[in-house]
Structures are given as C-alpha cells and as structure tokens.
C-alpha cells in the first residue's frame, strides 16, 4: 500500500471525543486550505459511525461554508435527525475556531429490491493502456513537479481526455467532457463505508476541472481562482475503490462566477454506481 494511501486512511479514522462528536485532522504538509474531499469524506465517516451497518448511505448533500484551516483539528458534530423503519437521516457540522466550515446531510437506507435501470457506460480506453498522471505531467512541468505532485496522491488517476494544463496550451483540446479512470493505490479491507468515504474524497479531485477544461483554463495559470461551493452524491450500488472506476464528467453550465459539473462513476463491468453534482466558484482575473 502506498504511503500516501496509508496517510489518507489514518485521516479518515476519526477520533471519537464524545457521543456523536468526532475529531479529525489534516495532512501536515498542507499549507493552505483543507482539501474539500477530505472534509466531505471525514464528515461522512462521522455520520456513518452513528448508523447501523445494515443501512448503507445512498445520498449526501453538502455545502462548503468557509475555507478549512489545515493547521488545527476539525470537530464534527452529528445530529441524529431521524431513524425510521427504512431510512436514517444524519446532519453533520464541521467546526473550526468556533465556526462552521462545512455542513453535510446524509441519508441511509436498508437494502430493498424494485425496478432497476441505469445509464450506459461511455466508451473509454482501458486504464492499463493510458499513461500515468506522472507521465502526463512530465512534458508539461518537468520531473521534479511531476514526482512531487503524484507522490502525495493516494489515488491512481489515468486521464482518457486532455488535462486542463494541456487544453490551456492548445485551444483545440478544450472540451465540456472529461473521462478519468481512478482507484486507490493499494488493497483495502471489505468495509463498505470506507469505500464510499474514499470515493467521496476522490470525487472532488477532478470534477470542477471539467469546467476549466471547457474554457482552456487551469489551476495555477495565474488568472483562474476557484473553490467548491456545494457537493451532492448518490450511491446506487456497492463498489470497491481499489478496483478501477471510470469517472465520466461533464459541465452543463457556467456563469455568474460559478461553474456546474456532473459526474457518473462506472465499474469496469459497466454498472453505474455513483452519481455526482458539484457547483464551484470559478473566477477569471482577465474575464
């Protein structure tokens, strides 16, 4: 197991400090704000630990309220909103310096049968045929940056479509769609909540990039700034994040300093297992 994955699993193993109150921390090498996927994943861990294991999460809706401070712990308070016959509802607040930085509502459901259908998986090259993220970054930024960038990441990401930095250099590569294969860099135990929380973490890594990809923008281009505003996920079927998953993303709208992105996560067998929506702040200095 890659060291960065071990570190992420440690971050998701929250400390329980009281009934329905948990404490998490951020990576020691993070200097700016807390990564949104981290706080979302930790909040879902807090909610899930108050719910029976036979009720898996089926949806979450979250708002990023303030930037998180990576230098101090994050306290997660869980409100047990409802425990019904079929559904359980939890609300979580993430607090730093006495103020809420993030809120999450999650719904859990006992497994049931019923009518079933799902969208078809889009075509994409097999992940093994695609270059690694490090190999894609090498010609753009050189070996030192490529190595530092990828060594810190616990998720193996293989892009089947252009990187934002590539499209920023070549306008012909701009597109409103992005396809990314991803999986954690190691084997995981059979804990469904852990796999869901890790997917929550990973879902925030590339989704808002799709908005930039459509306009030839990139983080770090000295004119684009942004942040996640809200995030919603629906978990349709069980899955494993230590197997390859195709994250198909598109952007239906941008305007008013915001961009909307939509994602669908498929297994290699073609099953749709997760749907995602996210709106983010996207401001361009020279716009």
Automatic annotation (TrEMBL):
Per its record, how is this protein called by name?
Answer: Acyl-CoA thioesterase II
- Source domain of life is Bacteria
Q: Which PANTHER family match?
A: ACYL-COA THIOESTERASE, ACYL-COENZYME A THIOESTERASE 8
Q: Which organism is it from?
A: Actinomadura parmotrematis
Instruction: Read off the SUPFAM superfamilies from this record.
Output: Thioesterase/thiol ester dehydrase-isomerase
Record's signal peptide: none
Q: Which gene encodes it?
A: tesB
The record's family statement is: Belongs to the C/M/P thioester hydrolase family.
Keywords annotated in UniProt:
Hydrolase
Q: Where is the Acyl-CoA thioesterase-like N-terminal HotDog domain?
A: 30-109
Q: Name one Pfam family in it.
A: 4HBT_3
Tell me if Hydrolase is a UniProt keyword of this record. Answer: yes
Boundaries of each Acyl-CoA thioesterase 2 C-terminal domain copy?
A: 177-281
